[in-house]
Automatic annotation (TrEMBL):
Organism: Vitis rotundifolia
PANTHER family xref list: PROTEIN TOPLESS-RELATED PROTEIN 2, TOPLESS-RELATED PROTEIN 1-RELATED
Gene3D superfamilies named in the record: YVTN repeat-like/Quinoprotein amine dehydrogenase
Domain CTLH intervals: 34-92
Identification of the protein by name: CTLH domain-containing protein
Region (Disordered): 1096-1134
WD repeat ranges per the UniProt record: 448-491, 919-960
Coiled coil: none
Transmembrane stretches, start-end: none
Pfam family, one: zf_topless
GO BP: primary shoot apical meristem specification; regulation of DNA-templated transcription
Domain of life of the organism encoding this protein: Eukaryota
Low complexity composition-biased segments: 1113-1126
Length: 1134
């Protein structure tokens, strides 16, 4: 909004205030965000109008904007919470806690738990810190003093606390002046003009006689300034010439997305984001406006040109925060100190930090390899050299290009939005997509022959709630691919030169893509077939990259001309013009300048052998650093999500990591940790791969996904024509080996069998009184404690304490935890009802996401416990029937799905204490429930061995089926059946004593495994590891099996003698298994004799089944038969 438009809002505010439109005044203050009326805010706080207080505040700031904003909202919500407690309105207090205060738990968990604990007190003033809390009025007054200080200190409120000084009735005066001006333009002005409307220009009706003097007063609009106060009409034109916005406006083209409209149905005028959503909002195919110099684009070999100019790709930004306001930050926030130097070994072309793991860096180089680095510990987690995964599926142009010149470079590598997938764009045709797990393993997922020539950029987007891959290339096109199947969804054509970069984004519910080409053209596309919505020239008219700020409100671009002039600018989307141009670049840059943004605060670019920083709100350069020297002329750079680390390329094929104080602490923390077990020493590239399960991951050139466990710091040489030919010929021979040969080798392999306590680390948790059976066992979400429900209805909680040996207080088998109880010795004991003894009742348990509450039942009422005090908050659902399974709704913690003993499922609202609906479909008791947000469904399982799928929206049944009986078992099956969703939320683990099976979203069994060979006993329990890479299963003879989740291949067997310290008693077995929430190789076993064991691999062998017997020999290589290779027939996406 221009400054004049802003001033007009102030004039309207003054007019509304003078006319006593009080509510409208404050609504406009809030919606415009230009003036924060402190007096109105104080009045609302004193009146306790909390909803209005927050609504008004939200016009100026949001909770997560900065620490001042967070404190403001916290103080308001805390006061609202305390007032509800003071009124003894516990239900309202719980609602405020869950809806309003829970957002602060992730920032200060201990404080949130302390606030939660106030619910257990008769009077919250018993809390020492609240002992001086007076009455409501005085408390609000004290809070207001604190709020005013926070608002005045908050940079988002700068220049918004004072109303501009101007004369009263200024808008009325301007209107009178306008009317006077219009009256002077009348051909036959009358002495007393009759002005009846402001909707049309004034004109006097013709009269006879001489021209009278100009009017001096009008009763409708007040005094009109005298004519003498205005210049003579002939002195200037009556109206300033209208300046039309540039026809190349950026915004507004996405205002309507009706695909049925023909492309010709567009408005002739320029677009704007505030236009109504109509057909007129579409842009025509704009061309360079008249008067703008035409492009001096030199035609030539585009591939050669792209090789010459390629210096990395646009970094698509993703970071938190939603406010767009002037920044007030210290230069200390900038990462300027060199804390790490990493030797990559070849020229780095592209980098990207993991979106969640702040110190994991993805790197792509000019020889086609990619690496994953843990920059804190300087450890290379993974290294992949370039190879074509399946040459037989490649197009002839690609095969020809590789034979002519086998050298290949990474043009761009980028993480997906959730960090579970990454994409690599190469300089010849190909995009490769890998899946990633937190252990640092990369698995081949998709290989796409995407473009003719180089693939210059790759990014991820979510059109229609579907994860997609966006690519662009030398063939002048942009393409969109399904990230799961690799199927092409869209092709966008219209550029007249190779496309240099893409920037997917969305505004409100409208998804779109910006693209830039090397002729300097910028275009924008909706996900349809109607062509480009925008066509205009970028500053510099050559290589340009675009990026949005994290909150999506600010658009930046950085480009370099052929003459070396660089341009870093911010765009005004509403007007389609450049808002500001940042200064400080070298006159003639020696390469295409790269840039990045961080946390809505700073911009950084590599230029003049330096990193240059700008405040987003200031065009002058903020500072520049040389990073202790050794940088190239135009270094590439990349911030991590938090902005605490900055990766910068060096001229000696390395990377420097720069940090601020937060980044320094982060890297020191990682450096001080012992080397994590799953990151073992590097192996030579040409060494024999390790066998990690019974069959091992065969190196499968033709498979769509084949995991690789290599951990090498060696750099392979670039692929040459000679070794490419060798590689291709070897493929022809080995891609389909003889099945019989492989079978002989497989039969000779030995499944790793862990039978001795020296082969793992196991700990029996301390418990002075061991009675009954452990019927339910879960880790807390923080992973710092274990909660068990015993068959006698008593809960037991073990907490790991922080110590020198365990500084983070993490659960581990290496440190003995404390069996924790409140000081008063209270036990968490469920109501057991009067029907059956506790040992025979179905037990169920569910933990809130913040670990503050546990909901539990043991045949009687369902109890809600406070985890801090062990006190019962409330009970509900009196039997019969008894509850047999509990599951929280994924989007609303007030909604609980409760499986019942009578085979129904009750959808219960805790807040209003009401059963919303009952679901009927099972024939026996419900024994398992699992929600999927992606499928928008609830899956239930029962003792009838039946699976049912229910829609979350209307709770109607979508589908049901009985699980398949394995060979040798009579059908139909009966017995408890459990379900759990894979991390992809589409594949389902189904557990029955006769089998573990994986089902897809259509309830089709993808694969299954039944007890046999070394694991013949019935299955007692099974669960996915936290990363869904493994399945742990317990058996009735005390053994534990560790399976690959993708293929259900047995990795190893853990005998009871390995984890039970003394001689295991006959009949003792794991009744339930719990998987650690962040350590995929740690499990806890709840035993039939009441004991709990924590089990994990040793430091020497950090993964289950990681080292096979020496007698196993080598793997059969290149098996294309999924039944024989280490690969599953079908792998779910991650």
């Amino acid at each position: 909004m221009s400054s004049l438009s802003r001033e007009l809002v102030f004039l309207i505010l003054q007019f509304l205030d003078e006319e006593k439109f009080k509510e409208t005044v404050h609504k406009l203050e809030q919606e415009s965000g230009f003036f924060f009326n402190m007096k109105h805010f104080e009045d609302q706080v004193q009146a306790g109008e909390w909803d209005e207080v927050e609504r008004y505040l939200c016009g100026f700031t949001k909770v997560e904007d900065n620490r001042y904003s967070m404190k403001i909202f916290f103080e308001i919500r805390k006061q609202k919470y305390l007032e509800a407690l003071d009124r003894q309105d516990r239900a309202k207090a719980v609602e405020i806690l869950v809806k309003d205060l829970k957002v602060f738990a992730s920032f200060n968990e201990e404080l949130f738990k302390e606030i939660t604990q106030l619910l257990t007190l008769e009077n919250f003033r018993q809390n020492e810190q609240l002992s001086k809390y007076g009455d409501t009025k005085s408390a609000r007054g004290i809070m207001l003093i604190e709020l005013k200080k926070l608002i005045e200190a908050n940079p988002l409120f700068r220049d918004k606390l004072t109303f501009p000084a101007f004369k009263a009735s200024r808008l009325r005066t301007l209107i009178n002046q306008s009317l006077n001006w219009q009256h002077q333009l009348c051909k036959n002005p009358r002495s007393n003009p009759d002005i009846k409307t402001l909707f049309t220009d004034h004109a006097c009706t013709p009269t006879n006689g001489a021209r009278p003097p100009p009017p001096t007063n009008n009763p409708l609009v007040g005094p009109i300034p005298k004519a003498g106060a205005f210049p003579p009409i002939g002195a200037h034109n009556p109206f300033q010439p209208v300046v039309s916005p540039s026809p190349g406006a950026i915004a507004g083209w996405m205002s309507s997305t009706n695909p049925s409209l023909p492309h010709a149905a567009v408005a002739a005028g320029p677009p704007s984001l505030v236009q109504p959503s109509t057909a007129a909002a579409f842009l025509k195919h704009q061309r360079t406006p008249t008067g703008v110099a035409g492009m001096d684009y030199q035609s030539g070999d585009s591939e050669h040109l792209m090789k010459r100019i390629r210096t990395g790709q646009s970094d698509e930004v993703s970071f938190s925060g939603v406010a767009h306001a002037p920044n007030v930050y210290s230069q200390d926030d900038l990462p300027k100190s060199v804390v790490r130097t990493i030797t990559q070994g070849s020229n780095v072309m592209s980098m990207d930090f993991h979106p969640q793991q702040q110190t994991v860096l993805l790197v792509g180089t000019n020889v086609g390899d990619i690496s994953l680095w843990e920059v804190g510990s300087r450890e290379r987690l993974a290294h992949k050299t370039f190879k074509v995964w399946d040459i037989s599926t490649c197009s002839m142009p690609l095969q020809t290009a590789l034979l002519k010149d086998a050298t290949i470079s990474v043009n761009r590598c980028v993480w997906g939005p959730d960090g579970l997938i990454l994409g690599v764009a190469f300089s010849k045709h190909i995009v490769q997509i890998y899946t990633y797990n937190p252990n640092g393993e990369l698995r081949q997922h998709l290989e796409i022959d995407a473009h003719i020539g180089g693939v210059n950029d790759v990014a991820f987007a979510h059109p229609n709630k579907q994860l997609c891959i966006v690519t662009c290339g030398d063939d002048k096109t942009i393409k969109v691919w399904d990230a799961q199947t690799g199927r092409r969804l869209y092709t966008f054509e219209g550029h007249e030169a190779p496309v240099y970069s893409v920037c997917p984004h969305y505004k409100e519910n409208i998804q779109f893509i910006f693209s830039t080409a090397i002729d300097g053209k910028i275009k924008a596309w909706l996900y349809d077939c109607l062509g480009s919505r925008v066509d205009y020239d970028a500053p510099g008219h050559w290589c340009t990259m675009m990026a949005y700020s994290a909150d999506g409100t600010r658009l930046f671009s950085c480009g370099t001309s052929k003459d070396g002039e660089s341009h870093l600018v911010e765009w005004n989307e509403s007007e389609g013009a450049i808002k500001r141009t940042y200064l400080g670049f070298r006159k003639r840059s020696l390469g295409v300048v790269q840039f990045d943004t961080t946390r809505n605060r700073f911009l950084a670019a590599g230029d003049e052998f330096q990193i240059k920083f700008w405040d987003m709100d200031n065009t002058n350069i903020l500072t520049a650093v040389e990073a202790e020297g050794g940088l190239p002329a135009s270094p590439r750079l990349r911030f991590n999500k938090e902005g605490s680390l900055l990766a910068v390329t060096t001229s000696d094929n390395g990377i420097k990591i720069l940090a601020n104080n937060d980044g320094l602490r982060l890297t020191r923390l990682l450096e001080s940790r012992p080397m994590e077990g799953h990151r073992g020493p590097s192996e030579p590239i040409n060494s024999k791969p390790l066998i990690v399960n019974a069959l091992g991951p065969a190196a499968n050139v033709s498979a769509a996904m084949s995991p690789s466990l290599e951990r090498s710091d060696r750099i392979q040489p670039a692929v040459s024509i000679n070794n490419l030919a060798t590689m291709d010929s070897s493929r022809l021979v080995d891609v389909k080996p003889k099945i019989s040969d492989d079978l002989e080798k497989i039969k000779s392999w030995k499944i790793p069998d862990i039978v001795d306590q020296s082969q793992l680390k196991a700990l029996r948790l301390p418990d002075p009184v061991t009675t009954g059976k452990v019927v339910r066992l879960i880790y807390t979400n923080s992973g710092l404690a274990l909660l068990a429900l015993i068959s006698n209805a008593v809960h037991k909680l073990w907490k790991w304490q922080r110590s020198e040996r365990n500084p983070l207080g993490k659960s581990t088998a290496y440190v003995v935890p404390q069996l924790w109880q409140p000081a008063n010795g209270t036990l968490m004991t469920n109501d057991t009802g009067d029907n059956n003894p506790p040992e025979e009742s179905a037990a169920c348990i569910a933990l809130s996401k913040n670990d503050s509450y546990v909901m539990s039942a043991s045949g009687g009422k369902v109890s809600l416990f406070n985890m801090m005090t062990f006190k019962v908050m409330t009970t509900f659902m009196s039997p019969p029937p008894a509850a047999t399974f509990l599951a929280f709704h994924p989007q609303d913690n007030n909604i609980i799905a409760i499986g019942m003993e009578d085979s129904t499922i009750q959808i219960y609202n805790v807040r209003v204490d009401e059963v919303k609906t009952k679901l009927k479909g099972h024939q026996k008791r419900v024994t398992g429930l699992a929600f999927s947000q992606i499928l928008n469904c609830l899956v239930s399982s029962g003792a009838d061995a039946q699976l049912c799928v229910w829609s979350i929206d209307g709770w109607e049944k979508r589908k049901s089926r009985f699980i398949q009986a394995p060979a040798g078992r009579s059908s139909p099956l009966v017995g408890d059946t459990k379900v759990q969703f894979h991390n992809d939320q589409t594949h389902l683990l189904v557990v029955h004593e006769s089998q573990i099976a994986v089902y897809d979203s259509k309830l089709e069994c993808v694969r299954s495994w039944s007890p046999k060979d070394s694991l013949p006993a019935p299955i007692s329990s099974a669960i996915y590891s936290c990363d869904s890479m493994l399945v742990y299963a317990g058996f009735g003879d005390g053994a534990v099996g560790v399976f690959d989740a993708d293929s259900l291949r047995l990795r190893c067997r853990i005998a009871p003698s390995a984890y039970i310290p003394s001689q295991p008693l006959s009949g003792v077995y794991p009744l339930v298994i719990a998987a650690h929430p962040s350590e995929p190789n740690q499990i806890a076993l709840g035993m039939s004799d009441g004991a709990v064991h924590v089990v994990e691999p040793t430091d020497a062998e950090p993964k289950w089944g990681g080292q096979p017997s020496q007698d196993n020999g080598s793997l059969p290589s290149n098996s294309s038969n999924p039944a024989l290779s280490g690969q599953p027939a079908e792998l779910p996406p991650r």
